[in-house]
UniProtKB/TrEMBL annotation:
It is found in: Nucleus. GO terms for biological process: mRNA processing; RNA splicing. The gene is LOC130500635. This is Pre-mRNA-splicing factor SPF27 homolog. Pfam families: BCAS2 (PF05700). The keyword Transcription does not apply. Belongs to the SPF27 family. InterPro entries: SPF27 (IPR008409). PANTHER family: BCAS2 PROTEIN, PRE-MRNA-SPLICING FACTOR SPF27. Keywords: Coiled coil, mRNA processing, mRNA splicing, Nucleus, Spliceosome.
Length: 250
């Protein structure tokens, strides 16, 4: 209530609550009732709300650029057990293009240089190297043949596992959505049920404010009349204090 020298003037809104960011727990206080508050549909109120939100964002210590600063830092990857992966990671970080694989030299049959055409040891060395390369190609062909026979079934099994995983994730997502919908329905029900009581209390608050203002106005009129009577008594030489003391209380 607002007072003036101890006199009650009118009922006012409750005092502002403690700022949530000043509390020890940094709790956020949300008092919105979205299912029954329709004031935001008014363009004037919407503009004022948007202005207050922008002002609060400007005064806030949290900025979009550092909203993750309270989280622990990301671990540093050193790739000690996998230097090849570490080298590739550094390449991607540096924005360099991937290394091109030279298939021509990989599958090319190598011969001794012209200076060693008559060298039997050089021919044996290059022959063994080409034989190893040929054996590797034969193993790769066997792997491709095995993949062509067994690969489709392995892919089907892998796809089945992925489908099972997808079904499980979809079920979890559906359960979460149902929980959210349940909470929203309960909030809507409670807010709409309480809206009648809130409207009645708001109407009562307005009536009390109007009544207090009427009382204040009547008190002001009475005070004016009393001051007028005091001036008139003083002009006639009457001592009102003595007369009031002589009056016996009821």
């Amino acid at each position: 209530m607002a007072t003036n020298n101890g006199d009650v003037l009118m009922l006012e809104a409750a005092p502002e609550a403690t700022k949530p960011w000043a509390s020890a727990a940094n709790a956020e206080v949300i008092d919105a009732l979205p299912y029954i508050d329709d004031d935001y549909g008014n363009p004037l109120i919407k503009a004022e709300v948007d202005r207050l939100v922008e002002e609060e964002m400007r005064r806030s210590s949290r900025k979009p650029a550092d909203f993750l600063k309270e989280l622990p830092p990301l671990p540093k990857f050193d790739f000690e057990n996998c230097p090849v992966l570490g080298k590739e990671y550094e390449r991607v970080r540096a924005g360099k293009p991937p290394v091109r694989i030279d298939f021509e030299s990989r599958y090319k049959l190598e011969l001794p240089p012209a200076s060693k055409k008559n060298d039997d040891a050089a021919w044996k060395q290059y022959l063994q190297k080409n034989q190893r390369s040929l054996q590797q190609k034969m193993i790769e062909l066997e792997n491709l043949e095995m993949m062509s026979k067994q690969g489709p079934e392995l892919w089907r099994q892998n796809n089945h596992r992925l489908e099972v995983f997808l079904t499980r994730m979809q079920k979890l997502a559906q359960e979460q959505n149902e929980e959210i919908e349940k909470v929203n329905r309960e909030r809507k029900y409670h807010q709409q049920t309480t809206a009648y009581e809130l409207n009645a209390l708001s109407q009562e608050w307005r009536q009390l404010c109007m009544k207090n203002m009427e009382i204040q106005s009547a008190c002001a009129v009475l005070e004016t009349q009393i001051d007028s009577f005091k001036r008139e008594a003083a002009e006639r030489g009457w001592n009102l204090e003595e007369k009031l003391e002589s009056v016996k209380p009821l």
